Model the fold of this input.
Amino acid sequence: MEIRPVRPDDLRDLFEIDGTIRSAHYLHVDQSGEGLGLGWKLEERLLRSPLVLSNPLGDDLTFLLKQIVSGIDEGLALVAEHEKLPVALLLARQEPQFGALRLAEVRVDFDFRRQGLATALLYMAIAAGRDQKLRAVGAEIRTDNAPAAHLFAKCGFELTGIDTCRHTNHDLVKESATTFWYAKLD
Done:
């Protein structure tokens, strides 16, 4: 297994990484109070039915990936290879105005999960952020992706916020809001 920067000739093969999200749990958001006294509580619960979401690389991520790999945008694009085939990807954009590296994508092929690849990629992103003298590495994940929440917590990221309005009000009924996570580097 080798983890290295993505090269332009890797781009077409990265679409073969099976980034399917599978989860039996979600983080339930319980909102209380009002106005400035508003508060949230998160609790892990079973989903009504297990989540299986195909999660292909979309147009926005593909564009960002090409921008970073070609050097047009500042960021980090890492690929993990097994027998010359890509099995994991980390994509992050530098946000100098916030002194942060913002993770846009972390995906590990379904057949290679639970082997520490995502953990290694996140630690490499944290190291890159420190090398660039940034103050944090940030990420956004949906509450219906409990495996990602566990991964970020394990790697030292702190849950710093919840956005219940980013998508539609129906997302809360579908057990999905956005959570914000940061690994502080200073």
User: Anything to note?
Assistant: Residues 20 and 55 are 5 Å apart (CA to CA). The beta strands are 2-5, 21-32, 39-53, 75-82, 85-95, 100-108, 136-142, 158-163, 178-184. The chain has a mean pLDDT of 92. The domain at 2-28+49-140 is CATH 3.40.630.30 (Aminopeptidase).
